[in-house]
Specification:
The two termini are 35 Å apart. The protein has five helices and no strands. By secondary structure, the protein is mostly helical.
Length: 134
């Protein structure tokens, strides 16, 4: 009986590893080696898997706080990959091409928005990254 249980556990573990490898394959297939977006997509994918695991299995005492932190980090990564900064600044400064002063303000707003996301992502990862798995 014990050998059957060990065989079933071994088989489940192998199936789980195959499913995990298959889910990660789309991030590695046809990627560019010099593009930061690939690393961001992989990090976002892993953070989402961990967040869903924590929420489903209730394995952390303060799961709501940790899930919220993970979701915020996922959202920041998605926003950085989508780069909506140009559209946001254009809504604030319409017809910025006609006026050099408006163009400078538009360009500053774009760089400020991108920098704010960079800092927020760095803060979230620097402050909580090692504690999400405790």
């Amino acid at each position: 009986m014990g050998a059957v249980v060990l065989t079933v556990k071994w088989f489940r573990k192998k199936i789980w590893r195959i499913e995990r490898a298959w889910s990660l394959l789309k991030y590695y297939w046809g990627t560019e080696d010099c593009d930061w977006v690939v690393a961001a997509e992989l990090l976002q994918f892993q953070l989402k898997r961990i967040r869903l695991h924590i929420a489903k299995d209730n394995i952390i005492v303060d799961k709501d706080r940790v899930c919220r932190q993970l979701l915020i980090t996922e959202t920041i990564l998605q926003r950085m990959m989508d780069e909506p900064y140009f559209d946001i600044a254009e809504k604030r400064y319409p017809n910025f091409q006609d006026n050099p002063v408006r163009w400078r303000a538009w360009a500053k707003m774009v760089s400020d928005l991108a920098e704010a996301d960079d800092k927020m992502l760095g803060t979230m990862l620097g402050k909580y990254f090692r504690h999400w798995w405790d």
